[in-house]
Amino acid sequence: MGKVLLWVEHESGAIKDATLSAVTAAGQLGDVVALVAGEGVDGVAQAAAQIAGVSAVLKADDAAYAHALAENVAPLVAGLMADHDAFVAPATTTGKNVAPRVAALLDVAQVSDILSVEGPKTFTRPIYAGNAIATVESSDTKLVVTVRATAFAKADASGGSASVEAVSGAGDAGLSSFVGAEIAKSERPELTSAKVIVSGGRALKDAETFAATITPLADKLGAAIGASRAAVDAGYVPNDYQVGQTGKIVAPQVYVAVGISGAIQHLAGMKDSKTIIAINKDEDAPIFQVADVGLVADLFTAVPELVGKL
Amino acid sequence: MKILVPVKRVIDYNVKPRVKADGTGVDLANVKMSMNPFDEIAVEEAIRLKEKGIATEIVVASIGPAKAQETLRTALAMGADRAILVATDDAVEPLAVAKILKAIAEEEQPALVILGKQAIDDDSNQTGQMLAALLGRPQGTFANAVTVEGDKVIVAREIDGGLETVQLALPAIITTDLRLNQPRYASLPNIMKAKSKPLATKAPADYGVDTAPRLRTVTVAEPPMRQAGIKVADIDDLVGKLKELGVA
Asked: Which CATH architecture has domain B2-245?
């Protein structure tokens, strides 16, 4: 068993759920050493040390790492890889941004978005929008892997007692700087970790109709709100609501698809949901081929009636 | 400034891929192929920068089989100036592609390289980041908006929680997200004109790059099928199902 360096994704002092899934995947490869990079990350490092399955925590506290800019963070990780056999990151936008830069610095191929660990260097991963599953074996001496969070159980956030050690890297590479961020505010559960998701498609006509139709149902079910690419492109909801090959990959207990036809690229993001419920007036819509429960009805009458009866 | 746009020939996004019965891969014989959709967005962005008077020349490059020439001609018809085809019949991994692109970038000295964020066949989402690392340049991945200001480029990026804006020193690498722009269609006269635009053909060896794969594909399989579900007759039945599932 080797030593695995794990990227801890955190925001506003809290560790993101995707990290916990990555811990489970990393644990199947070896001894998990969590890397917490950022500015003022003592609390995050302490929290990482509590995660069951983490054997040590490395803390890189520097203003240069505050926004996880790949230009600054990748050399730090690549340097630490002298003492580790694998680098594992959750396949979030941050993981996807940083990991390939690390892989290239190490001159190794990266295995993206793994679904399972089949051997010390063998993994399964989806290709062609999830229409095929490839089993691949790396021939590199060091591994760089990103993990599809929905494919692995979350490690327990408590019960561990790892030691925390401070590390440092080269700091600011002077190539890039953070200007600002617009984070969509939501009191709902986060899309990628929600137990229930209500998603709307193009059939919802416009932003007002989308909100008026989907929100009450999501409220009743305590659900996160998602959307198809068509609904996002049409401006009904912001980009980060998009579920699909090019948006978020989700696997909730229950996924309710409202007015979504079920294009290949959308199915790629949600077909691992435990139960899929579809409401669509077109009984031939491809969504019904994957739905466990389907209702052929006009959503504008069906959804309000459903909300009334819940 | 000069802009380099790498493009990839992939299965058309509307085609449902079929896994070969022997598990060696996906059947691409007689399947419609097109330019990777994210690369169309990259070409479009380069053209828009040229139309604004920021870019002076757009070079497109593709690494793949001889037929990738068609993909390059499409980019030329959209408005690129010239093309480089690095011909190889091997399946080239992102790391090797990044190394070839690095060599091309060193030769051409583009101020910007604009790539798609991922190819819809291998879904890797690696090449742009790897190229940036190999060149020691900054990267603006998943770009939603690109603004060139003097010797800097401001990139708004699509991230999990919303949008993030970063400032990069030029030369830089950008990868496009879906909503960066709406790519144009090539008009018939432009398709005709594109036939006479320069297209250089090279080989990976010309750039001294070894394209031997680092990852061995053991098998390619169909994803697990979902069990066929049921259709409920009315809302009351649906409410019943939701109650069974414990969400209502």
From this structure: 3-Layer(aba) Sandwich (3.40)
